[in-house]
Amino acid sequence: GDMTNRNGQTLTYDSLQRNLAWTAAAPSSDSASYAYDGENTRVQESATTSGVTTTTSFIGTLAEVATTNGVTTTTTYYDAGPVQGVASNGGAVSFLLREEALAMFEHALAIDPKLTIGYIRKGNLLMTLGHHAEAQTAYTQAITYGPKNVNGWNGRGISLQGQADYAAALADFEEATSVNPTYTPAWVNKAKVLHNLKRDEEALATIAHVLELDPHSGAAWLTKGQILQAMHQERDALVCFDQATTLHPDVANGWYMRGLLLVMLQQYAEAIASYDRALQLDPTEAMILADKGIALGKLWRYKDAFIAVDQAISIAPQSAYVWFVKAQVLYMAGRNREGRAAHDHGLALKAVAKA
Q1: pLDDT of 224-269, one tens digit each?
Q2: E strands present in the chain
Q3: Which pLDDT score is estimated for 68?
C-alpha cells in the first residue's frame, strides 16, 4: 500500500513490505521504482531526477548495468576469480582485484549506509576471500536494514558454518526458510549444518523436503549423497550423485564428488572418467587433479598419476593436501624416501597455514 511520510514523499510497499516505488513531494516530479526477484533481492532500480531517468539492473551478483535515458553509461561486472570487478564507463575499462572491489563496495555503502544488497555483496566477496568473521558482520548489517531479505540470513548462516558455529548457523538458515519457505538454497544449507551437528536423520528429512519443492535441485541431490556416504550407505549415495550429474552435467563438483565415491568403491576407471568430466568443466582445480592422481596410481598408471599430481602442485604449490597426495602416489610407486620428503613438505605447509 501507499504511505506519505512527513516530508510529503509517497512510498509504495507490497505485502512483503518491500519498497516498490517512491515519489517526491510536489512540485517535484522526481520518482523511483524497484523490482525484486523471488528471493526478495532487488534486481532493478529506476530513478527519475530532473527529467533524467537512470535504470540500473542487477544481474544476480554478477553485474550491474546502468542506463541513462536509454544509453548505457556504466557496466560493472563481478567475478569469483582473482579479478573481482571490471568497471566500464565511456569506454574506459579498469580491472579490479578483489581487495579493490571490496573498497568499491565500502564506497557505495558510505554513500548509502542502508543499502541492504550492498552489504550482501560485500559479504559474498568477503566469503570468496575466506574472511568468514568479516562476512558475518556484513551480513548482520544487511539483516539490520533488510530483515526480510532471505539472502542476508542465508549468507550469515554460511559464514557462521565456515567458523564451525553450527548452532548459530542453523538458527539463521531456519530464519531464512521462515522468511521465504520456498527458498531451496537455505533448506539445503540447513541440511548441511544438521549433518555437521551429526543429526543426519533430520538432515535427510530436510533434503526430502527440498526435493519436494524442487526435484531437479542438483545441490540437494549432492548433499543427500554426501550425507548417505558419511552414513556408509555408499550405493545409495552413488544413486544421488548420478542423479545430480544427470540433472546438471555442467557442474564440476557433481562429477568430482562422484569420482571420490567411486574410488572408495574401488571402481577406479569409472572414477577417472568422472574426474575427467569435472576437469573439462574446471581444468585448473588442483584437488580434482590430485585425486585423479590417486585413482591412476591405484591402477598402477604411475607416470600418468605423477603428471596429474604435478599439475595440481603447479596450480596450488602451497596446498598441503596436494603434497600429501603426491606422497601417497610416491609410496604406491615404491619411492618411499621421496614420499616421506613430500609428506614432510605437506606437514610444513599445514603448520604455516595454521599459524
Answers
A1: 999 999 999 999 999 999 999 999 999 999 999 999 999 999 999 9
A2: 2-4, 10-13, 19-23, 31-36, 42-49, 52-59, 63-68, 71-78, 83-89, 92-97
A3: 67
**What H or E segment, with its residue span, contains residue 278?**
helix 268-281
Give the model confidence (pLDDT) of 164-215 as tens digits.
999 999 999 999 999 999 999 999 999 999 999 999 999 999 999 999 999 9
Nearest to residue 258, comparing CAs of 282, 232, 283, 288?
Answer: 288
State the cell numbers at 113: 549506509
Enter the C-alpha cell of residue 161: 558454518
Cell of 35: 523490482
CA dihedral sign, ordered 40, 42, 48, 49: positive
Euclidean distance between CA atoms 318 and 254, whole angstroms: 25
Give the 3-state secondary structure of residue 12: strand
Q: What are phi and psi of 76, to 5 degrees?
A: -120, 125
Grid cell digits, residue 287? 584437488
26: CB partners within 8 A, 6+ apart: 8
Task: Read off the C-alpha cell for 283.
Answer: 581444468
The pTM of the full predicted model, rounded to 2 decimals, is 0.69
In our burial notation (b when 16+ CB lie closer than 10 A, e otherwise), range 132-168 reads: bebbbbbbbbbbebbeebbbbbbbbbbbbbbeebbeb
Q: How many CB atoms lie within 10 A of CB 46?
A: 16
Residue 158 has pLDDT above 60, yes or no: yes
Three-state secondary structure readout of 283-326 = CCCHHHHHHHHHHHHHCCCHHHHHHHHHHHHHHCCCCHHHHHHH
Q: How far apart are CA 245 and CA 280, in angstroms?
A: 14
Residue 262 near residue 270, CB atoms below 8 Å? yes
Residues 26 and 8 sit within 8 Å (Cβ to Cβ): yes
The answer to whether 28 touches 10, Cβ cutoff 8 Å, is: no
Query: How far is Cα 202 from Cα 204, in angstroms, rounded to an integer?
Result: 5
Report pLDDT for 354. 77
